[in-house]
Amino acid sequence: QVQLVESGGGLVQPGGSLRLSCAASGFTFSSYAMSWFRQAPGKQREWVAVTSAPGGNPDYAHSVKGRFTISRDNAKNTVYLQMNSLKPEDTAVYYCKAVSQGLHVYWGQGTQVTVSS
C-alpha cells in the first residue's frame, strides 16, 4: 500500500524554525522526485521545493529561497523540509508529493504549519 505521511508541523512564532518530514512506503522511493507544496486558506496550492531522483538538484520557489532546505534520506525513505526564518505568510497546510519518470504521482495528507505571535 502506497503511503506518504507528513509530520513535524505545528505553531511557531515569526522567525522560528520547523523541520517537516515525509515518510514514504509502498513504492521505490529512490526512483521518485520528491516535492513539497503548500496551500493556505482560500488560495491555490503552490509548489515550494523539489529534489530529484535519487537526490540532489534542489530547487525552490522564490518566496522561500534562502530560508527553506529540502533534503532526502533514501535509506530511511524520507524527505525533509527544513524551514527557517518563518513568516506569517508561510502559514499553510504542507504536502509532500512523489513523482516517477513515468509520471506516477502520489500525495500525502498534509501537515499544518501556523506562524503567528
Notable traits:
117 residues, mainly beta, 7-stranded mixed sheet, 4-stranded antiparallel sheet, 52% strand
Task: Describe, in short, the structure shown.
It contains no helices and 11 strands.
Low-confidence stretches: none
Helix content: under 10%
Along the chain, the helix and strand elements come as EEEEEEEEEEE
Structural class: mainly beta
Alpha plus pi helix count: 0
The N- and C-terminal alpha carbons lie at a distance of: 40 Å
Major sheet: size, sense and barrel closure? 7 strands, mixed
Q: Overall mean pLDDT score?
A: 97
**Rg calc:** 13 Å
Query: What portion of the residues fall into strands of 2 or more residues?
Result: over 45%
Say how many strands there are: 11
Shape: globular
Account of the protein in words:
- Strand 4 and strand 5 form a beta hairpin.
- By secondary structure, the protein is mainly beta.
- The strands form two sheets. Strands 2, 4, 5, 6, 9, 10 and 11 form a seven-stranded mixed sheet that branches.
- It is globular.
- It has no helices and eleven strands.
- The model has no long low-confidence stretch (mean pLDDT 97).
